[in-house]
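[09:14] KT: can someone run the structure on this one? pasting the chain below
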Amino acid sequence: MDTPGQDPGLTHAQEAAPVATVFVSDQDSEGVIRQSLSDLGIDDAEFKKGTVETATAYLATQPSPRLLFVDLSGVDDPVVHIYELADRCEPSVSVVVIGDRNDIILYRDLKNAGVSEYFFKPLIIDAVKATRNRILNDGREHSPSQRTGKLVFVIGVRGGVGATTIAANAAWYLAEKKQRWVMLVDLDLHNGDAALQFDSTPGHALSEAFEKPERVDRLFLERGTIHVRERLDLLASLEPLSESTTLAEGAVLSLLGKLLHRYRFVFVDLPSIVALGLAQVLHQPSVCVLVSDASLASARELSRWREWIGPNSAERRTLHVLNMNGADGALPQAEFIRAVGQAPDIIIPYDRDIAIASKFGVKATRKCAVLNRGLARLLRDFTGETDGPTRSIFSRIFG
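[09:31] RB: done, structure tokens below
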């Protein structure tokens, strides 16, 4: 840890160490830190589950990084542990501490012990970025071209609820109507329908990106993406059923990090069976859209998904879209809400025109007024836009 009079230069050991090493005990904090480092182009950061005690034991035998995050949550005598950590670290390492205690005395004690910053959970990404810049980037902010986009996961809690239709139409609307740069990623590599929504032919770039993530660069993305519209790109593969594919979380995180540097919005059409293997991915700063119909089975599955994903945090939240409300076999809306325990964020009523149009893709569904009204409410949430100023009674009557 930096102290007055010490040389801040890197040691030979640090030159071989990762730029950053992170020891945290919860996935939400990891997601925020991972995104803040990825935003600076740091791809070699190490993430380990644990606390300051884990970090102390690890650094007793390993070279120190330039930037070290450690977690004090649930640790007795945290300041004592920080001094023990200091004995194991090389002098020039900068230590950022996170914890579950909002205590000004603890903050002062930690600063006196030489830590660079202390953050009380839940972490706020802008605050973490500011400290990261101060330590690694000489305090400079990124240029505007390096800002990251918004990550949106769309998950159907069960098959046939219209998640792909919602993901594809939302991506198209933001690109065409709002002129945002948008990427849609279909993570169903064997049965995905996102390409069909745009009358496009899936390629193999997406599966190649997961097999060899180190190859993914600007040229790879330019050649491998399907350019649906001027501002809308698609990554989708359709692999042979005979070839099993397991997505490594590290490869998915690496790809999403690179995409978020290039696009204002990155939509991920995420099959539920795939999502269950990507818990770490789902705890990145993001919006997770859970799509259901109003069936009893959907009510059960929605509750299970909310429990598995966990509560909202400062940088990650879940929205529920109740789709096809009022279709044959659906529970009455009040009964569905009682079964789920809370009202949906967005309700899209059942409409026969949508059911027919969805078979023909976005070209047909974008003309469905009922779907567009539901998506408009969802997209206002993504963009932070309001419904606009309230019109006066005179303008409503005469205008």
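[09:33] KT: thanks! The longest helix spans residues 369-383.
[09:34] RB: yep, looked fine to me
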